[in-house]
Design brief:
This protein is 35% helix and 20% strand. The protein has 7 helices and 12 strands. The protein has a 5-stranded mixed sheet, covered by helices on one side. It binds dinuclear copper ion.
């Protein structure tokens, strides 16, 4: 289907299904607007007062009519609801083979980090025909990552992670907006998503990882996010307590991600990125059963990108779980 009406370009696997639902809503709205306006006009003439002495007969309700105008709208709204749920579920089920990209929003820019190492500002390069998962957080206030051509939009919150995914279907450059008012330069918090053929993306990526001499670039080889995290794990002295010796004060982090954690108070939780982040920033909030509450907070000592790197490193220690 070509782009109808005023919809933006369609460049993701979501776009068509979101548009169909949208057109359905517009069609229903048009149908009832015309029907109601038409009936008002029609009745105005049909039941107009024809003589000064005319008095209308009082009406005391009409059960079949009332049932009809209750049941029919109910059924129509339920189709909208069910159709919406189907799209919503698809939107929140991140495919297992999705590649992961990290997004940090701040007043007023988008910082993008590829797991392989390259960083971008207000630009995001992705391959087409490949699901891409975004793990996002904010350094300050609430932002909202919005790519109209992908029909993809997700709040970016300080203090936690949100996730979203998309699969671009055709190469091109698409608008990236911040869709949550976030201060003076909110309207300037814009960028570009560049969808590329997979081979072109690979070439772009390897050039960024290891700049060739031909470009005259002086930047040196970039480490991957996991490598940065491994380095931080040492420099932040995480390994003082989180190690495999019998005297270790903290849990061995090789067996954490994706696993169920049992806490002092009996509660349990499956360790995901949000939990790891919380354990770094607010280590006293949940104490794993069998350990003492001795970990200091790393709040204000690590920035969001460093925390993401640490989490990536911890995930990499448990590759089977991290992949699922
Ligand atoms: Cu960030 Cu609006």
């Amino acid at each position: 289907m070509k782009n109808l009406l005023f919809t933006p370009e369609r460049a993701s696997t979501f776009a068509a299904s979101v548009d169909s639902l949208y057109f359905y809503l517009v069609a229903i709205t048009l149908f009832f607007s015309v029907l109601i306006a038409g009936l008002i006009l029609f009745f105005t003439f049909k039941y107009r007062r024809k003589s000064d002495s005319e008095r209308p007969k009082p009406i005391h309700g009409n059960i079949p009519l009332e049932l009809m105008w209750t049941i029919i709208p109910f059924l129509i709204t339920m189709t909208i609801f069910l159709w919406g749920v189907i799209i919503y579920v698809k939107y929140f089920e991140i495919p297992k083979n999705a590649m992961e990209i990290f997004v940090v929003g701040k007043q007023w820019m988008w910082k993008i980090q590829h797991p392989e190492g390259p960083r971008e500002i207000n630009e995001l390069h992705v391959p087409i025909n490949q699901p891409v998962k975004l793990l996002m957080t904010s350094e300050d206030v609430i932002h909202d990552f919005y790519v109209p051509a992908f029909r993809m939009k997700m709040d970016v919150l300080p203090g936690t992670y949100t996730e979203a995914w998309f699969e671009a279907t055709k190469p091109g450059t698409y608008h990236l907006f911040c869709a949550e008012y976030c201060g003076t330069k909110h309207s300037e918090m814009i960028g570009k998503v560049i969808a590329m053929e997979p081979e072109a993306y690979e070439a772009w990526l390897s050039e960024r990882i290891n700049p060739t001499a031909t470009t005259g670039s002086s930047s040196k080889k970039q480490g991957s996010v996991v490598e940065i995290g491994a380095e931080l794990f040492k420099t932040s002295r995480c390994d003082t307590c989180h190690n495999t010796t019998s005297a270790a004060l903290g849990p061995d982090l090789a067996k954490v991600f994706g696993k169920e954690r049992k806490f002092e108070n009996g509660a349990t939780l499956t360790a995901d990125e949000k939990y790891l982040r919380e354990s770094i920033i607010e280590p006293q909030k949940r104490i794993v059963a069998g350990y003492a509450p001795v970990m200091p907070t790393y709040k204000n000592q690590l920035d969001e990108e460093q925390i993401i790197a640490l989490i990536s490193y911890i995930k990499s220690l448990n590759p089977e779980e991290a992949a699922s």
